Amino acid sequence: MVTLNPKGGPTLWCLGKLYTIQTDLQAEQIWTREKSLLAENQDVGRSLITVNQLIRRHRLLIKEVASRNKRTELILKEADMLLSQCPDVFKIESNTFESGRKQTSEESHTVELYTDEGIAFQIPRRILDELHHTSLDLRDDLDNSNCLLTKRSRLLDVGHLCFNHHWTYGELRSWLQETEDLIMLESRANRDTATAKAELRTHANVEFRVNGILAQSVRNFSE
Q: Which domain of life is it from (predicted)?
Protein backbone atom coordinates (compact mmCIF):
# COMPACT_ATOMS: atom_id res chain seq x y z
CA MET A 1 0.00 0.00 0.00
CA VAL A 2 1.28 3.45 -0.90
CA THR A 3 1.36 5.32 2.39
CA LEU A 4 1.19 8.81 0.88
CA ASN A 5 -1.71 10.41 -0.91
CA PRO A 6 -0.21 10.90 -4.39
CA LYS A 7 -1.08 13.86 -6.54
CA GLY A 8 -1.56 13.44 -10.27
CA GLY A 9 -2.46 9.77 -9.95
CA PRO A 10 -0.95 6.99 -7.82
CA THR A 11 0.84 5.36 -10.73
CA LEU A 12 2.66 8.52 -11.78
CA TRP A 13 3.55 9.40 -8.20
CA CYS A 14 4.93 5.94 -7.42
CA LEU A 15 6.87 5.75 -10.67
CA GLY A 16 8.36 9.18 -10.01
CA LYS A 17 9.32 8.18 -6.47
CA LEU A 18 10.92 4.95 -7.63
CA TYR A 19 12.81 6.74 -10.39
CA THR A 20 14.17 9.33 -7.95
CA ILE A 21 15.37 6.72 -5.48
CA GLN A 22 16.86 4.58 -8.25
CA THR A 23 18.77 7.59 -9.61
CA ASP A 24 20.03 8.50 -6.12
CA LEU A 25 21.19 4.94 -5.48
CA GLN A 26 23.06 4.82 -8.79
CA ALA A 27 24.77 8.12 -7.99
CA GLU A 28 25.83 6.78 -4.58
CA GLN A 29 27.09 3.62 -6.24
CA ILE A 30 29.28 5.59 -8.66
CA TRP A 31 30.67 7.71 -5.81
CA THR A 32 31.36 4.66 -3.63
CA ARG A 33 33.20 2.85 -6.41
CA GLU A 34 35.33 5.90 -7.15
CA LYS A 35 36.41 6.07 -3.51
CA SER A 36 37.06 2.33 -3.53
CA LEU A 37 39.57 2.85 -6.34
CA LEU A 38 41.43 5.31 -4.10
CA ALA A 39 41.38 2.81 -1.25
CA GLU A 40 42.93 0.16 -3.53
CA ASN A 41 46.08 2.28 -3.92
CA GLN A 42 49.17 0.31 -2.83
CA ASP A 43 51.57 3.27 -2.72
CA VAL A 44 53.24 3.85 0.66
CA GLY A 45 55.69 6.52 -0.46
CA ARG A 46 59.48 6.48 -0.45
CA SER A 47 60.24 8.16 2.86
CA LEU A 48 58.85 8.77 6.33
CA ILE A 49 57.64 12.20 5.21
CA THR A 50 55.69 10.89 2.22
CA VAL A 51 54.10 8.02 4.12
CA ASN A 52 52.94 10.49 6.78
CA GLN A 53 51.37 12.60 4.04
CA LEU A 54 49.61 9.54 2.63
CA ILE A 55 48.33 8.63 6.08
CA ARG A 56 46.83 12.09 6.53
CA ARG A 57 45.13 11.88 3.13
CA HIS A 58 43.81 8.41 3.92
CA ARG A 59 42.33 9.59 7.21
CA LEU A 60 40.56 12.41 5.38
CA LEU A 61 39.21 9.85 2.91
CA ILE A 62 37.89 7.71 5.77
CA LYS A 63 36.09 10.71 7.26
CA GLU A 64 34.65 11.65 3.86
CA VAL A 65 33.37 8.12 3.25
CA ALA A 66 31.88 7.86 6.75
CA SER A 67 30.03 11.14 6.28
CA ARG A 68 28.72 10.15 2.85
CA ASN A 69 27.65 6.72 4.11
CA LYS A 70 25.14 8.35 6.45
CA ARG A 71 23.38 9.91 3.45
CA THR A 72 23.60 6.65 1.52
CA GLU A 73 21.99 4.69 4.36
CA LEU A 74 19.05 7.11 4.42
CA ILE A 75 18.46 6.52 0.70
CA LEU A 76 18.75 2.75 1.18
CA LYS A 77 16.21 2.87 4.01
CA GLU A 78 13.84 4.80 1.77
CA ALA A 79 14.25 2.15 -0.92
CA ASP A 80 13.68 -0.60 1.64
CA MET A 81 10.51 1.12 2.83
CA LEU A 82 9.09 1.26 -0.69
CA LEU A 83 10.03 -2.34 -1.44
CA SER A 84 8.54 -3.47 1.86
CA GLN A 85 5.16 -2.33 0.56
CA CYS A 86 5.36 -5.19 -1.94
CA PRO A 87 5.45 -8.23 0.39
CA ASP A 88 4.14 -10.48 -2.37
CA VAL A 89 7.08 -9.56 -4.57
CA PHE A 90 10.01 -9.61 -2.14
CA LYS A 91 10.65 -11.24 1.21
CA ILE A 92 12.36 -9.10 3.82
CA GLU A 93 14.99 -10.89 5.87
CA SER A 94 17.34 -9.08 8.24
CA ASN A 95 16.72 -5.74 6.54
CA THR A 96 17.95 -7.09 3.21
CA PHE A 97 15.89 -8.37 0.32
CA GLU A 98 16.28 -11.86 -1.07
CA SER A 99 14.61 -12.83 -4.34
CA GLY A 100 11.38 -14.45 -3.14
CA ARG A 101 8.76 -13.75 -5.75
CA LYS A 102 5.23 -15.01 -5.29
CA GLN A 103 4.80 -18.17 -7.32
CA THR A 104 1.27 -17.28 -8.48
CA SER A 105 2.55 -14.14 -10.21
CA GLU A 106 6.01 -15.16 -11.41
CA GLU A 107 5.08 -14.57 -15.03
CA SER A 108 3.34 -11.27 -14.38
CA HIS A 109 5.02 -8.14 -15.74
CA THR A 110 3.23 -5.77 -13.37
CA VAL A 111 2.75 -5.40 -9.63
CA GLU A 112 -0.52 -4.24 -8.11
CA LEU A 113 -0.38 -1.71 -5.28
CA TYR A 114 -3.01 0.21 -3.34
CA THR A 115 -3.30 3.73 -2.00
CA ASP A 116 -4.49 4.50 1.52
CA GLU A 117 -7.96 4.90 0.05
CA GLY A 118 -7.85 1.39 -1.38
CA ILE A 119 -7.42 2.50 -4.98
CA ALA A 120 -5.55 -0.16 -6.94
CA PHE A 121 -2.90 0.71 -9.51
CA GLN A 122 -0.16 -1.18 -11.29
CA ILE A 123 3.50 -0.52 -11.94
CA PRO A 124 6.00 -2.56 -13.98
CA ARG A 125 7.71 -5.31 -12.01
CA ARG A 126 10.93 -4.52 -13.85
CA ILE A 127 11.22 -1.18 -12.02
CA LEU A 128 10.98 -2.87 -8.62
CA ASP A 129 13.48 -5.52 -9.71
CA GLU A 130 15.97 -2.85 -10.76
CA LEU A 131 15.55 -0.98 -7.49
CA HIS A 132 15.92 -4.20 -5.54
CA HIS A 133 19.13 -5.26 -7.31
CA THR A 134 20.62 -1.76 -7.20
CA SER A 135 20.08 -1.70 -3.43
CA LEU A 136 21.80 -5.06 -3.04
CA ASP A 137 24.70 -4.04 -5.28
CA LEU A 138 25.18 -0.79 -3.39
CA ARG A 139 25.28 -2.60 -0.05
CA ASP A 140 27.95 -4.92 -1.47
CA ASP A 141 29.90 -1.90 -2.72
CA LEU A 142 29.72 -0.29 0.73
CA ASP A 143 31.02 -3.46 2.39
CA ASN A 144 33.81 -3.71 -0.18
CA SER A 145 34.73 -0.05 0.34
CA ASN A 146 34.99 -0.50 4.11
CA CYS A 147 37.14 -3.61 3.62
CA LEU A 148 39.50 -1.79 1.23
CA LEU A 149 39.81 1.18 3.58
CA THR A 150 40.73 -1.15 6.43
CA LYS A 151 43.37 -2.91 4.31
CA ARG A 152 44.77 0.44 3.18
CA SER A 153 45.05 1.57 6.80
CA ARG A 154 47.02 -1.55 7.70
CA LEU A 155 49.30 -1.14 4.68
CA LEU A 156 50.10 2.46 5.57
CA ASP A 157 50.74 1.47 9.19
CA VAL A 158 53.28 -1.13 8.04
CA GLY A 159 54.85 1.38 5.66
CA HIS A 160 55.16 3.94 8.45
CA LEU A 161 56.78 1.32 10.69
CA CYS A 162 59.29 0.36 7.96
CA PHE A 163 60.33 3.92 7.20
CA ASN A 164 60.50 4.75 10.90
CA HIS A 165 62.90 1.83 11.47
CA HIS A 166 64.91 2.85 8.41
CA TRP A 167 65.24 6.37 9.79
CA THR A 168 66.25 4.99 13.20
CA TYR A 169 68.92 2.79 11.62
CA GLY A 170 70.35 5.78 9.77
CA GLU A 171 70.51 7.82 12.96
CA LEU A 172 72.23 4.99 14.83
CA ARG A 173 74.77 4.46 12.06
CA SER A 174 75.60 8.17 12.00
CA TRP A 175 75.95 8.27 15.77
CA LEU A 176 78.20 5.20 15.79
CA GLN A 177 80.42 6.68 13.08
CA GLU A 178 80.76 9.94 15.00
CA THR A 179 81.68 8.01 18.15
CA GLU A 180 84.30 5.98 16.30
CA ASP A 181 85.81 9.12 14.78
CA LEU A 182 86.00 10.72 18.21
CA ILE A 183 87.70 7.66 19.68
CA MET A 184 90.24 7.61 16.87
CA LEU A 185 91.10 11.25 17.47
CA GLU A 186 91.55 10.60 21.18
CA SER A 187 93.70 7.56 20.38
CA ARG A 188 96.11 9.65 18.37
CA ALA A 189 96.44 12.09 21.25
CA ASN A 190 96.97 9.35 23.85
CA ARG A 191 99.59 6.78 22.97
CA ASP A 192 99.94 5.03 26.32
CA THR A 193 98.70 1.44 26.64
CA ALA A 194 96.28 2.03 29.52
CA THR A 195 94.46 4.76 27.66
CA ALA A 196 94.29 2.66 24.51
CA LYS A 197 92.75 -0.26 26.42
CA ALA A 198 90.18 2.05 28.02
CA GLU A 199 89.29 3.43 24.61
CA LEU A 200 88.86 -0.06 23.21
CA ARG A 201 86.53 -0.99 26.08
CA THR A 202 84.53 2.19 25.52
CA HIS A 203 84.26 1.47 21.82
CA ALA A 204 83.20 -2.13 22.52
CA ASN A 205 80.52 -0.95 24.95
CA VAL A 206 79.20 1.58 22.46
CA GLU A 207 79.11 -1.01 19.69
CA PHE A 208 77.37 -3.50 21.96
CA ARG A 209 74.68 -0.95 22.86
CA VAL A 210 74.12 0.03 19.25
CA ASN A 211 73.86 -3.61 18.16
CA GLY A 212 71.38 -4.21 20.98
CA ILE A 213 69.23 -1.30 19.85
CA LEU A 214 69.31 -2.53 16.25
CA ALA A 215 68.39 -6.07 17.32
CA GLN A 216 65.48 -4.76 19.41
CA SER A 217 64.26 -2.74 16.45
CA VAL A 218 64.33 -5.83 14.24
CA ARG A 219 62.36 -7.81 16.84
CA ASN A 220 59.79 -5.03 17.12
CA PHE A 221 59.42 -4.91 13.37
CA SER A 222 59.03 -8.70 13.14
CA GLU A 223 56.17 -8.57 15.63
A: Eukaryota
